[in-house]
Amino acid sequence: MSGDIKNHEAEVEKLNRLGRLVDKYAQSRALGLLLLMVLIVIGTVLMVMLMELVLWKPAWWLLGVVMLLMAGVCIVGLWLIVKVFPRYERRLYSKEGQIELEQKKVPIWAFVAYVVGFLGPVALNAFEIMPIRWALPLTLVSLGGFIFYASGKEKNRPLGVVFCVVLLLEAAVTAAGVSTPFSGKGWLYSCFVALMIYIAGASLITAVVVHIYNRRILRKIKEVRPFGEQEAGKPDT
Amino acid sequence: MSKKQVNQIHNSINRVVHEPVRLAILKILTSAKEVDFNFLLTTLGVTKGNLATHINKLETTGLIEVKKEFRGKVPHTSYKITKTGRRQFQKYWENMKALAPE
Question: Which of A19, A25, A222, B91 could be bridged to A217 by S-S, CB 3.0 to 4.6 A?
Fold first, then answer.
């Protein structure tokens, strides 16, 4: 057994690596999110196009249609997140199997800080107190910070890191004075629409990056797994 | 470390845990709340029969807990490490560290 133990060192190292990779792999499953994000991006683009139409040819009935569509996008989005997503998410990875990690609850103070940091600058901009150049970056930083913090608790770190980095980049670009899309044409075109476009874009980029990362980790797991393909019914030690 | 101490540690090593596939199963289960059969198959790369044998051994020794349920019409089996399993895994790790050459 002593020789066995000496050989065991390399085996232990492999095992530790496998443990780390499995953790990374389990935390970076974003296929469901990727599908959801495509829908949200399409919804956002449609909504912005319709808003454009309302401003171009103002009419009450057109405004009504836009409002209905916006409500539809919100309801479908909520339905997807609350009902469909949790139900079918498991099926997306059924071939590779399921893993559930220990999650912690995000404290209420973090939610409160996030809501204040997110909505405050949007409201200040809507009332023309704060220019979009500062309101938008503040909102993006608040959202990025919250997602980064929550992703640690919810065991979804890669997603939080990528999303936060993309949002911080967007915030930095806006604060540097690069012109913001769809802004400055009435209250609908204050911070709100630009923010929605930025968030939808950042979410889609994040979902794609995390999904690619997940595939890479799975490939590494297949390379590192220490046991190779074993014969069925091989006697147990 | 004296020869007597080394022998003592050798004797206290859990033979059920001291097997690469079972050790890997326990390692994965310690970092997760719940894992299913397919996940273990994907990550460990062993055959279904082999994995089932190792899981059975871990279950009969009380190191892991098996949960069987139906998801729609499809049967689904998932595994969880027990408190004993976690303790034994920890103890095994400590023993191996103690035996490792300086």
Answer: A25
In which domain, by residue range, is B85 found? 12-97
Output b/e per residue, B33-64; b: 16+ Cβ within 10 A: ebbbbbbbbbbbbbbeebbebbbebbeebebb
Q: Is the pTM of this model over 0.90?
A: no
Estimate the crossing angle of helix B83-99 against helix A2-27, to 10 degrees. 130
Residue B80's H or E segment, with its range, is strand B74-81
DSSP characters for A213-232?
Answer: HHHHHHHHHHHH-TT-SPPT
Kindly tell me if the per-residue pLDDT of A191 is higher than 90: no
Q: Which of B47, B54, B53 has the alpha carbon at shortest distance from B20?
A: B54
Indicate the number of domains in chain B. 1
pLDDT tens digit string along A10-52? 777 888 888 899 899 989 988 888 877 887 788 777 777 777 7
Q: Measured between CB atoms, does B60 come within 8 Å of chain A?
A: no
In a domain, B4, yes or no: no
Question: Nearest C-alpha of chain A: how many angstroms from B61?
Answer: 15
Give the mean pLDDT of A166-181: 89
What are phi and psi for residue A229, nearest 5 degrees? Answer: -80, 120
> According to the model, what pLDDT value does residue A223 have?
86
ipTM over 0.85: no
**Residues B34, A99: C-beta atoms closer than 8 Å:** yes
CATH number of residue B88's parent domain: 1.10.10.10
Residue B3 in any domain: the answer is no
